[in-house]
Amino acid sequence: MSSSPTDSRTVPSVIAEIRCCSALSSRPAINCAVTIFATIYVLLAQRHGLLVSLGGAGIGWFAVAAALRLVAWTPLSAIALNVVVYAVTIPLSRRFRGSTGPVSFVRTRLDIPLRALTVALVVAVVTAASTRIGSFASGMFALFPIILGSSIVIMHPRIGGKVTASMLAHAQLPLIGLGLGFLVVHYLVAPISVWGALVVGITANIAWSGGLLVVRLQILKRSGATSSQAAP
Predict the structure, then answer these.
(1) Three-state SS for 100?
(2) Of the candidates 127, 183, 216, 231, which lies 20 to 30 Å from 206 by C-alpha distance?
């Protein structure tokens, strides 16, 4: 008797795929909490210091993430939520997206190691606690904006809140690609395995960001050509 592809897999691998699908089905929804985090920081950083700006954004993230736990999200409902949220956050942060030009600041040898250590700590804690806190909470804390937060901690005191806020305002559109990547993984993890789905999901995320970069460069090129033609 021939065995099907599903029969050839081990029980732990099947369980891992089920857990992965369950967690990933919520991550496009949790992605909205990240863009709200960025938007709150952008607004607060215009007039406030690091503690108020980052603290307010963190409180906003936890509040939104807690509210999202009350709903059993499906991929389609998560997509609908993303459409509504990004329709608000992108226009709201647009006026803070102006180019500030190159900014120099003093880097220290500990900047990158501390960021890497912080990310590794979050990953270790979420992985260790995933069996107790459930797939949704695991997905929620896995998307805690630790990279954005550590960047804010490093940059806000050195180059100012407004310049740092400009960086996070520009992050709104790329964050859509993050949700897209999670959605791709959710649908592909069962038919092509976890690792194959991750490769395709990461590729989709990179392709989205690369497309945004190409569009941005084309806009800057046209803007430069228009300025040169207008010059006497």
Answers:
(1) coil
(2) 127
pTM score over 0.90: no
What DSSP designation does 103 have? -
Q: What does the alpha-carbon distance between residue 232 and residue 136 come to, in Å, rounded to a whole number?
A: 60
CA dist list (Å): 74 to 63, 156, 186: 20, 37, 11
d(CA 141, CA 126): 7
The CA distance from 169 to 187, in Å, is 30
Query: For residue 208, is it within any domain?
Result: yes
Residue 199 lies in domain = 14-98+107-225
Does some domain include residue 2? no
Q: What tens digit of pLDDT does each residue of 183-213 get?
A: 888 888 888 888 888 899 999 999 999 999 9
CA 47/CA 32 separation, integer angstroms: 24
Q: Give tens-digit pLDDT for 14-60.
A: 334 434 444 555 567 888 889 999 999 999 999 999 999 999 999 99
Q: Which two tokens stand for residue 22?
A: 């369950």
What are the phi and psi torsion angles at 134 (to 5°)? 90, 165
* pLDDT tens-digit series, residues 109-121: 766 777 677 667 7
Supply angle C-alpha 204, 215, 222, rounded to 5: 170
- The 8-class DSSP code of residue 52 comes to H
CA distance 115 to 11: 36
* For the chain, counts of helices (H) and of strands (E): 8, 0
Question: How does DSSP assign 136-193, residue by residue?
Answer: HHHHHHHT--HHHHHHHHHHHHHH-HHHHHHHHHHTHHHHHHHHHHHHHHHHHHHHH-
What are the tokens at 226?
């228009």
